[in-house]
Design a protein that fits this description.
Chain lengths: ~150, ~700
């Protein structure tokens, strides 16, 4: 099936197998490997991206469901190589170790701060509960989101 | 530059991770690559009656399907056990084979029975489901204590009573006497449950065989690419080692589970030669649960003997440790040498005896997971101590302080010789505990607890203190204990002609931040900017033979190898500088990136010396050009960090919900290079521990815990 979408501002059109997951499409057809796959149960959140302004786990959508969609992935967060303030805060507060969950974590944080610019610690923890991190214990991730909230 | 030790330098690796530009194994692709899927057993224990691959093989897009018979006919054995732990009576440890694909029976859920290779992943998945396997289901054994009983299901025909080894450490007679004379005995029986490592990046492999020069390339999720190369080349596939290149690129967490050379990756590499095309395999999360080595799974009876004054006089444990269905690379040393040796804990206990029986069960193989054996020891000792204190009505902190080994600095006072083989280098255990008591305001906490309880609420204050044997490990020592590998580390410091540096390390970074901390070390010692230093790791074609990252060893062992190389750079650099300055090397001092003639203004910079080393027109006689040194460092002892943690917990009486109200940690990590990174490691370790305490566990067996 034909599917077209705009990813990080660039239009793409591909012929895909109907069962192709959106995350597979992004990684394998479009070549954006920053969106990761950590599970097969929609649990881990490593594949979180933004579709039409909403964060979604891209392993839960088929590519063909996103016909005409505007998509933003982690590769679209920095501008001309400069980190987005959320990315900066993750670096500043050491909110990442191995980096595998980080793209999804940054995208979920973006959605939270877009909707709620001054979240409480509880709201931050609630917002990222769909994103697993095995390295950091979340402590510094929460600090990073708090820090980002002061910059945005 | 300079004065970088102890600074929270922001991580250089973060930019690529934050931009989604890290390169993990599954991010790599090769031209003409194929996709592999393993067919896995849904049964814990079953005879393989038949494996019918005809329908799968006939599907469009399927390249081939391999079965256990193919592997067996090819004479390929599976991965190996790297540590020999023999029976008490001297009999050799049992070592049942671990075929890459099962051919006679399956021994755990997830055991691989066929390997499907297709043009695309979807086809491979479809074909895997078309492989028809006829199983004759057998009774399974999952309880390590019951596994040794006569009549228990036998996992391997050549392992009677499922017993791989039995092992002891300490002095049995003295410990028996301590218990005979005890005023009070504390007893615990518990199951330290089987846990799943669950790095967020699943294991993956991309394998290629180049028939033009008979060379294999394997991209894989490894904490130690050289160890993987050695095991695959020398033991599994019989490839000349120089014909195999292993690349462990960015790795999304390991926690021990990516130390091991798994059969799955070996099978994919073998298959790439058979079909003459690259083969890619990436585990899904279900496979990660079913095939990444698990941790812990100890069924333990433990006892602590006290005299009338509350002094600990003896400690005795009997543990049945499951190794799972097959012996993973370091499975045998985890419940023995990495567990029994820490049973002294931080206490002066004069008599200790540890008895461990290693058994196979119909479960996923067990090996190192975060801490590996040592957390099991800490849990045992600390639960005994905590319980004993409560039983005799003494404050648990007071009881610990009463029984701690007194402070020793390892310089003025000798290291502390334990009853279980180790000699601790230095320690101030009461210092750590007193500090955490102060930080927590323990007296106030006790008042809060009393008030909460009088209000009918459940509030508790938990302690754990610990010492660990880290910086693994002195090769000769571990060799005498059965290790089949050395545990040194290597580092090459290559100074380029323009004065920038690449450091090649055997240690592999998968979250630990080596690219930052190692650069800090080199920059600090050579007085050059961290921008001028890059750390390279993970590719066996680039780096000298290194042993990788595990056992809290990277800074202690690899950092020392780096320092040896840096010292060599400085020594040679001084000879070149002396030539340029027309003096003797002894007349020079090195500071702020320059060699200076003592007492004068004359100096030459690091960059000038580097350039001279590679453009040696005016050069010391008999000096080789170049400024590039590799060093191997083999430690003389383990290092022994220690600490004291307090966890304050409230439990909802109605729902049972546990809430951690406060967590206060004091850890002695020695000289800290980058406090931000160390704190991050502590956070992650605490979260992993809380995970095991409250949330995690493989449910193949749930034994009631009475402690």
């Amino acid at each position: 099936m034909k599917v077209s979408m705009k990813v990080n501002g660039t239009a793409y059109e591909h012929d895909v197998e109907p069962r192709t997951l959106l995350v597979q499409h992004l990684r394998e057809n479009i070549g954006l490997t920053g969106t990761h796959v950590g599970c097969d149960t929609s649990s881990c959140g490593a594949c979180t991206i933004i579709v039409n302004g909403e964060t979604v786990k891209s392993c839960t959508l088929l590519a063909v469901q996103c016909e005409g969609a505007e998509i933003k992935t982690i590769e679209g967060m920095a501008t001309n190589g400069e980190l987005h303030p959320i990315q900066e805060s993750f670096k500043e507060k050491h909110g990442l170790q191995c980096g595998f969950c980080t793209p999804g974590m940054v995208m979920s944080s973006w959605q939270l701060l877009d909707r709620n610019p001054k979240p409480s610690e509880h709201e931050i923890r609630h917002a990222i509960e769909g994103n697993f991190c095995r390295c950091t214990g979340y402590h510094n991730i929460v600090k990073a989101v708090q820090d980002a909230a002061t910059k945005l | 530059m300079g004065d970088l030790i102890g600074k929270s330098v922001k991580r250089v690796e973060d930019n690529r991770f934050l931009k989604g530009e890290g390169k993990y194994t599954d991010d790599f692709n090769m031209q003409h690559q194929t996709f592999a899927v393993y067919v896995r057993s849904p049964h814990a224990h079953a005879n393989l009656v038949s494996v019918d691959i005809s329908a799968a093989k006939a599907m469009d897009g399927v390249i081939t399907v391999f079965t256990g018979k193919d592997i067996k006919d090819a004479g390929i054995v599976g991965s190996i056990c790297g540590w020999q732990v023999d029976f008490k009576n001297g009999d050799t440890m049992k070592e049942p084979g671990h075929p890459i694909l099962a051919f006679d029976k399956v021994r755990h859920v997830g055991d691989a029975v066929a390997l499907v290779i297709a043009e695309d992943l979807g086809t491979a998945v479809d074909a895997a489901s078309a492989v028809e396997v006829n199983y004759e289901v057998l009774d399974a054994i999952v309880d390590p204590k019951a596994a040794v009983l006569d009549g228990a299901p036998q996992v391997h025909d050549d392992v009677p009573n499922n017993t791989i080894f039995d092992w002891e450490l300490g002095n049995k007679e003295e410990t028996d006497a301590a218990f005979e004379n005890a005023h009070h005995i504390t007893e615990l029986s518990y199951h330290n449950q089987k846990i799943v490592p669950n790095a967020i990046e699943p294991r993956a492999a991309l394998a290629h065989f180049d028939s033009n020069d008979d060379k294999y390339t394997l991209y894989t999720t490894s904490q130690n690419p050289h160890l993987a190369r050695l095991i695959i080349a020398a033991f599994v596939l019989s490839i000349p080692e120089h014909k195999l290149r292993v690349i462990a690129p960015d790795v999304g967490g390991g926690f021990g589970s990516k130390i091991f050379t798994y059969n799955d990756e070996c099978g994919v590499l073998w298959a790439s030669k058979q079909i003459g095309r690259p083969v890619k395999w990436t585990a899904d999360r279900t496979e990660a649960f079913l095939t990444d080595c698990h941790g812990r799974d100890h069924v333990t009876d433990a006892k602590l003997a006290l005299d009338a004054e509350g002094n600990i006089t003896g400690l005795r444990t009997k543990t049945y440790a499951s190794l799972g269905a097959y012996l993973s690379n370091f499975s045998t040393c985890i419940p023995t040498w990495l567990h029994g040796t820490l049973m002294q804990g931080l206490y002066t206990t004069p008599a200790v005896h540890v008895d461990v029986t290693g058994v196979v069960t119909n479960t996923v193989p067990v090996d190192a997971v975060r801490g590996a054996g040592r957390p099991e020891a800490s849990f045992c000792v600390e639960r005994l101590v905590e319980t004993a204190a409560r039983e005799i009505g003494m404050d648990p902190a007071e009881f610990r302080l009463k029984n701690f080994i007194p402070p020793f600095d390892g310089v003025e006072q000798e290291g502390y010789q334990t009853q279980v083989a180790l000699q601790y280098d230095s320690g101030n255990y009461e210092g750590a505990l007193k500090k955490v008591l102060k930080n927590a305001n323990y007296e106030k906490l006790k008042e809060e607890r009393a008030a909460a309880r009088s209000d009918g609420k459940l509030m508790g204050i938990g302690f754990s203190t610990y010492v660990e044997a880290c910086g693994i490990a002195p090769s000769a020592v571990v060799g005498s204990l059965g290790a089949r590998a050395g545990l040194f580390e290597c580092a090459e410091v290559r100074v380029h002609p323009t004065g920038s540096i690449t450091v090649f390390t055997g240690s592999h970074s998968h979250g630990q931040g080596h690219e930052t901390t190692f650069a800090q070390l080199v920059s600090d010692k050579l007085g050059i900017s961290t921008d001028m230093v890059e750390i390279s790791h993970g590719d066996t074609n680039n780096i000298p033979f290194g042993m990788g990252t595990y056992g809290s060893r990277s800074l202690a062992v690899c950092g020392s190898a780096i320092m040896k190389s840096v010292d060599k750079v400085k020594e040679k650099g001084a000879r070149i500088a002396a030539h340029k300055l027309e003096c003797n090397p002894e007349d020079l001092e090195f500071a702020n990136g320059s060699w200076n003639v003592k007492g004068t203004e004359k100096s030459v910079g690091f960059g000038d010396v580097a350039l001279t080393a590679y453009v040696p027109h005016d050069y010391p006689e008999n000096e080789e050009p170049g400024l590039d040194f590799a060093s191997f460092y083999d430690p003389t002892n383990f290092v022994y960090p220690f600490g004291a943690h307090i966890c304050v917990v409230e439990i909802d009486k109605d729902t049972g919900e546990v809430k951690i109200v406060r967590y206060i940690a004091v850890d002695d990590a020695g000289n800290i290079i980058n406090p931000m990174i160390v704190e991050g490691q502590v956070h992650g370790g605490i979260a992993h521990g809380i995970g095991q305490a409250l949330y995690e566990g493989s449910c193949s067996m749930m034994i009631p815990v009475n402690c």
